[in-house]
Amino acid sequence: MSIYEELGIRPFVNASEPYTRNGGSVVADEVVKAMEEASRSFVNMEELIAKASDRAAQLTGNEGAFITSGAGAGVVLAAAACMCAANPAEKHTAGLLPHTDDLEKNEILIFRGKYLDMIEYWKLTAISGARIRIVDPSGKAMLDAVGEKTAAVFLFPAPMYEEGIPSCEEIIPALKRRGVRVVADAAAQLPPVSNLWYYTEKLGADLAVFSGGKHIGGPQATGLIVGKKELTEYCRQLACPNPRLGRVFKTGKEEIAGFLKALELFTGRDEKKEYSRQENMLRYVEEQLRGIPGISLHIQSEGRLGTEQPLLLVELPGDRTGEDCNRFTRAFEQPVDIGYFKKENGRPHTVFVNAYLLKAGEEKIVAAALKAYLGRSG
C-alpha cells in the first residue's frame, strides 16, 4: 500500500501544469537514485552547496548559481543579495537583514502590471526587509523611479504577466544602462533550456530565478538562482547552514543531489524530440474529441506562459466553464487535472491540455475524461 493509499488520497493524471498545488513534477528514476545515494552519507554541507552550485552554473552557462528550496525562496534571497551588494559600505548587511531601516538602498521597484493583484509572488521580496515600490507600467516611469534608495528592479517575465508593461527585452538593457540591478523571476519560464541563460547572459539581468520542481523535474522543494557570481555568493552567505535570513530556506543534501541530476537531464535532453512526444499525445486527444458538437479545438505552438511546448485548447459549448470541467475530470474514475483559465483572464469557457507531464498511455485517460464531460447532459 502506498503512502497516498494509507492517507486516503487519490493520485491523478496531470494534464495541466506542474503547479505547486499539484505537487510540482514527477522526478525521474535517476533523480530518485541520486537522492537515495545522497541520503546514505554525512557530508560537509557548505562544501556540497558550493560545489553543486558551481556545477549548476556550468550547466546553465552562467557566471554563478545557487541552489535553494524553491523559486519563492529564490525571490527572497535574490532581493536580499541585491541589498547586500547595493550597500557595500555596510559590511554586515547580510547579518542585519531583514532589518533595513538604516540601509542607504533598501527599495525594490516593481511594475504595476495588469495582473499585479492576482499574481502576488512579488510580495515575497518584502520578506527580505526590502521596501517595495510599485511603479506605473511604462519604461519611462520605471527609469524615472530609480533613485538613491533603489537596490534592484524585479521583473516577472511571461506574456500574460507582461501584458501592458515593457517586456524584459525592452526594459532590462535600459535599466542596465542606468546601472540598476535587475532580477527576473522566471520560475515557470521553461522550456526552452536556453532560458536558463537568456535573461542573464543575453539580456543582461543580474539574477534570474527558476523553480527546480516544475519543468526541470527536480524535487519540488528546490529552486535555482543564476547570474552574477557576486550576487549568488551573497545568496550562499545568507542561506542555510548560516544563521541568517535564509536559514529558513534549508535545502537538504538529498534535494541538492536530486536537483543537480534533474538539471543534468533537463539541459542534456533532445528538445525537438520532447516537443514531438508532447505534440503526438495532444494530436491523439484532439482526434478523440473531434466531432463533438459545440466545441472547437486548436493546438498552439506555445505554452500557457509563452514557453516552447504545444498546448491543446478546447472551447467548451454553451455556458460550460473550465472550472466546471476540471471539477468533473478530477472526480472521474481515473482522476485527471485539466487546465483552465481563471475568470480574471477573460477565458472562463476554455480548457487546455498540456502533455508535458503525461506518461505514455495517459493521453487515453485524458481523452476519456474529457469525452465523458462533454457527453454528459446539462
What would your notes on this structure say?
The protein is α/β, with parallel strands linked by helices and 378 residues long. It has 2 domains: 3-22 and 270-375, Aspartate Aminotransferase, domain 1; 42-268, Type I PLP-dependent aspartate aminotransferase-like (Major domain) (Aspartate Aminotransferase, domain 2), CATH 3.40.640. It has 13 helices and 12 strands. The chain has a 7-stranded mixed sheet, with helices on both faces. A 5-stranded mixed sheet has the order 1-11-12-10-9, sandwiched between helices.
List the helices and strands and how they pair.
Layout lengths: L2 H5 L5 E3 L13 H11 L5 H16 L3 E5 L2 H16 L6 H4 L10 E5 L19 E5 L3 H7 L4 E6 L12 H10 L4 E4 L9 H8 L4 E5 L11 E5 L1 H10 L14 H16 L2 H19 L6 E5 L10 E5 L6 H9 L5 E5 L9 E4 L8 H14 L3
